Amino acid sequence: MKKKTGSPWSWIPTLYFAEGLPYVAVMTVSVIMYKRFGLSNTDIALYTSWLYLPWVIKPFWSPFVDILKTKRWWIVAMQLLIGAGLAGIAFTLPTPFYLQASLAFFWLMAFSSATHDIAADGFYMLALDDSQQSFFVGIRSTFYRLAMISGQGLLIILAGSLEKSTGKIPLAWSITFFIMAGLFIAFMVYHRFLLPRPAEDTGKEAETPRMVLIEFGNTFKSFFTKKGIGLAIAFILLYRLAEAMLVKLASPFLLDAREIGGLGLGTQEVGLVYGTVGVIALTLGGIIGGIVASRNGLKHWLWPMALAITLPNAAYLLLSYYQPDSFLWVNIAVAIEQFGYGFGFTAYMLYLIYFSQGEHKTAHYSICTGFMALGMMLPGMAAGWIQEQLGYDRFFILIMLLTIPTLILIPFLKVDSEFGKKKETLPANEMTPEE
After folding, report:
1. Domains (ranges, CATH) in the chain?
2. Cα–Cα–Cα angle for 240, 118, 134, nearest 5°?
3. Which of 109, 139, 255, 333 has the greatest CB tally within 10 Å of its CB?
4. Would you tell me how many other CB atoms lie within 10 Å of the CB of residue 165?
5. Rounded to whole angstroms, how far apart are CA atoms 8 and 356?
6. Which of 57, 15, 17, 53 is CA-nearest to residue 366?
7. What is the pLDDT of residues 280-312, one digit of tens each?
8. What Rg do the C-alpha atoms of the chain give, in angstroms?
9. H-type helices in 51-97, by residue range?
10. DSSP E strands: which ranges in 166-244?
11. What is the pTM for the complete model shown?
12. What is the pLDDT of residues 309-326, one digit of tens each?
């Protein structure tokens, strides 16, 4: 039995927008910001890829989030810390030591955000039944990605406008991060009162340290002894391999001069293409993905969604080859890529939920997302150097080749044909991947 206080629509959109916003600040907004501060593609990709580390190692403290306090408490507390981290970045950007100081605050925000992810994803599985999880996975993915596109779009437009009006790049970005900090404090207050209180969301503060350590060990042991664990980890690492390389260089490609293979767009134009057309395409892709997955299940849509998230990457290859003068073609290419991402990412999130089912599902889901982050971190670290060696045109050819491993693995995945459909045969806490 779950204690419900209102519709999932009242908290899922805001919770996953709040989950995505610090991630986009750390991984994407920072890329554009450091580009505007004059850093090279190699340095940008290396420094910002290291910031993935908290998401990679978060499984090591996810059992403590599962055991101590409630998921609801962790969500609210981490949103407060993220707001503080954003404010810290805003304070340090105008200083001479901005790089070291801002990276330190980005690290603080990354650890807080990774912990917030653990709690939010666990809360999602506790507060919703299987059919609701399947239906809302498209919604949550959409608002998560919407936060990322808003960061790349609206916030970049704002920063670009402030750059022009103030004539000072550090001041413009400082104001932008102050606004983000205020937004996060608002999220914290909203969720403090609006999040439901599922009966299953209980802490275990009375546990002894010895029992906590035993539970910690059992959590990892039960995950790595799941049936098909090797194939599952390979799929999690490779599904976003091409995107891991693409996401680091997409914005620099649009910003770089045409003489070196870029499109020569301004900061505001990059924000506009991601913040308008990109948002609409992503939203449609995510919502449609969630609806069709809830009707036919994950297994039915796995192939179409995998193709949807990989093949549209060719849009950037075409942009680099033709370097169109028309801004319309840039918008069309980004729209195709974003729609495919929104639709295709639905299958990925459903698979992580599916493989995490059973005891310790919150911690197991966190371990899955840790592998997902590792699959983004390692390729991303080398992306800038590889692009500078190959040039943008051949780099995007490599991106297309990197979509192949995912398609090779899919025929070997074992997925229950009933998982994700509106009418489940078993409740979530009784259904495991082995079944």
Report:
1. 17-191+225-414 (1.20.1250.20)
2. 65
3. 109
4. 10
5. 21
6. 57
7. 888 788 889 888 888 888 888 999 999 999 999
8. 21
9. 53-57, 62-67, 71-92
10. none
11. 0.69
12. 999 999 999 999 999 999
